[in-house]
Design a protein that fits this description.
Two copies of one chain form a homodimer. Chain A is built from eleven helices and three strands, in the order ααβααββααααααα. With 236 residues, chain A is mainly α. Chain A folds into two domains: 79 residues, Orthogonal Bundle (Arc Repressor Mutant, subunit A), CATH 1.10.10.10; 146 residues, GntR ligand-binding domain-like (Four Helix Bundle (Hemerythrin (Met), subunit A)), CATH 1.20.120.530. Chain A has a three-stranded antiparallel β-sheet. The two termini of chain A are 37 Å apart. At the A-B interface, α4, α5 and α8 of A face α4, α5 and α8 of B. The first copy, chain A, binds a DNA duplex (30 and 30 nucleotides) through α4.
Chain lengths: 236, 236
DNA sequence: TGAACCGGGATTGGATGCAAGTGCGGTAAA
DNA sequence: TTTACCGCACTTGCATCCAATCCCGGTTCA
């Protein structure tokens, strides 16, 4: 019962099946870095923690494996996957391309509400510079997400959104967090790039918006990849 | 036992878990159009057919649902998904962008072996024009796959390959087949586009290769989308 | 005649049971 | 002391089992 409370508290969607809910929770845990790279996820432990049987846990782990979050070692269990700097650069190249497309599409399709949210996110961005380090990074990351989400929404291509979602989920948040935390030089650079992108979109300069966005994503992933390479103290 | 024979014959990988093997088989069936859009996939029937219990079938269906092949209706089962013309155009835009990137990358990275395979595929392409309609389309589709696969391989970005794979799998083969079958005008157009792309890659004209490939994919998906819109006799 | 209602059959969702596989620690031998 | 081996505990993989849900038919009532 206490377990079910934990489940209720942590789960967003109630109507979905247990496995779907578990997928969401475990994704969050991996992306947030709450469970470290290389950790084993055990059926029994998770089942007990969430007050369910091993069956939905197994299903969830298989889906996570299919999504690349964990690797299933036969008869051994599911282990959380890590990424190399090389992986991160590759992902940056792919995602940069797609977010560039989104920015170009957004030029023609963005509406007033979205414009407002885009510029607002970037105000929040600015304000976050005055906060303490962790709060700053936290707020910045939210503003960053909002900025990209609005543009994606404005682009109005469902499959594009889906595909970028897949790529976003490949990169655990805590790595980006660790890269940007307390590095206000990087954050300011990001801010400047966002402003330039927003400007290009509002001026409906398709090619500029595309190029700037594309570079922006690649720059960002390059910084993260660099951090990962430096701090390559990953679990074996 | 007879059932297990069927399983063995149809399954490629033997070491993998039953659910993984089932995922592969069912993906093939959906992509090939062997099971029609809107059809229900039943646990019991599949379990019996493959001589396994319902548990691995359930796991496989959940993974297929996560990949978008089927939709799981709570307490009702898994139903094979179809795509609208709009979906196909959206996918074309996304995939065009990424294959364009692949072509641009391939300019610098393609090696002799890959060059040979690329031009060979396009010879096979040409030869297929002399065959009977179905054989022609069949051979053409294989040549087409080979052409794109080689370029992707030459691009040398693993995550790009993964991502395009996801997009490819979203579009059942039988729809493309139906679109191109017996339409040698379309096939010839495709051939011409392939030749132009190959030429651009070999001349290391990054921007041209990118643009041609991108347009090529969008054209192709446009033709398919058009066919789907015309023949919108899809299951309800 | 038509709409609301109810029960049975089919089907899924989740829990539990059991055999098979794996790694680790302890022990014995070199 | 080091290395090879063996057995045990742990974990997974799959099968089976039970309850909850849903649809579809027939039936009843307005």
């Amino acid at each position: 019962m206490a377990d079910e409370l934990v489940l209720d508290k942590e789960l967003a969607v109630h109507g979905a099946s247990l496995s779907d809910q578990l997928v969401a929770v475990l994704q969050r845990r991996v992306i947030s870095g709450e469970v470290p790279i290389g950790a084993w996820l055990r059926h029994e432990a998770l089942a007990e923690e969430f007050g369910v049987s091993r069956t939905p846990v197994r299903e969830a782990l298989r889906i996570l494996a299919d999504q690349g979050f964990v690797s299933i070692v036969p008869n051994r269990g599911a282990r959380v996957n890590g990424l190399s700097g090389h992986d991160i650069r590759e992902i940056g190249q792919v995602r940069g391309e797609l977010e560039g497309l989104a920015a170009a599409l957004a030029c023609d399709r963005i509406n007033d509400d979205q414009t407002k949210r885009m510029t607002q996110s970037w105000d929040a961005f600015r304000e976050s510079l005055d906060e303490s380090q962790d709060v700053q990074t936290e707020r910045w990351m939210r503003a960053n997400d909002e900025f990209h989400s609005v543009i994606l929404e404005a682009a109005g291509n469902h499959h594009l959104t889906l595909t970028i979602g897949v790529l976003r989920r490949r990169l655990p948040h805590n790595i980006s967090f660790a890269t940007y935390a307390g590095n206000s030089r990087l954050i300011k650079k990001n801010l400047a790039e966002h402003e330039a992108i927003a400007k290009a979109i509002l001026e409906q300069d398709h090619e500029l918006a595309r190029r700037l966005m594309s570079e922006h994503i690649r720059n960002s992933n390059e910084a993260i990849a660099h951090w990962v390479d430096k701090n390559a103290a990953q679990a074996p």
